[in-house]
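Q: Sequence in, structure out?
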Amino acid sequence: MDVKKLPVLPKYPKPSYSFSKLSGLSVIPPAALLDGKQFVVEPVTTRNVTTQIGQTTYLHCIVDKLEDKTVSWIRLRDFHLLTVGLYTYTSDTRFQTIYNEYSTDWTLQIKFPQLSDEGLYECQVSSDPPASHYVYLKVLVPKTKIVGGENFYVSVGSDANITCVITDCPEPPAYVFWYHNGVMINYDVTRGDITVQKAGNDTVISRLKIKNAQPSDSGNYSCSPSNADSASIFVHVLRGEKHAAVQNDAASTSRSTRFVSSANVLTMIQVTIFIAASLCVR
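A: Exactly. Output:
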């Protein structure tokens, strides 16, 4: 019976690593640590990869003229050896190396990345001395917000435009569902139009337009993307344009008043402390 042997693990050096998102990776070889003195080593060029939580990502490492050498991927956060060649050396099945012989690309695939996967990864070739390429993985958590606060006022017969902004979203969501009082309205053409568009590298905007708003259109509206938590706003359809405008102004003024009131309270506390301190000095 033939038993397929796993390749012998290469011996990896144990240098010290320090990483800065601005300057990249600095590597301090063990030989550089002499008599407690640390020699300065020029930063190594590092490639940044950004993904979102749950979205399969790929870290690329192109190696030419590999010959009899092996390519390994190491997670530097805990110096965990993930793969050697096409063999996986971790019980976490989300990690796998994919090799493309035409592009000589040894790609580390990470399925369903989590926040704990964020950090620095090393692609190392078992040459003498070892040659390395570094990739910093950034994992984002998409966030959802509806522009305008918690309430929106519109007069009967007018159009209501509600904007939902999804940030920290490198990949557009597979869908964005809109709900009115818990009922999905994406396919209800009588209620209005829904659009989804990319707006920058990590931002997606979805807009809901309610045409000829009627009192029956009042209620809670929720924007629910496939890759993030939902956000809600309460729409009030009022009779008379002036009435709706006054309500919107009142909501805005209320927010400003709360801010000013907080500032006034803080000022009063500071004055009280100052007076008390003056009396103590006397």
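The domain at 143-238 is CATH 2.60.40.10 (Immunoglobulin-like).
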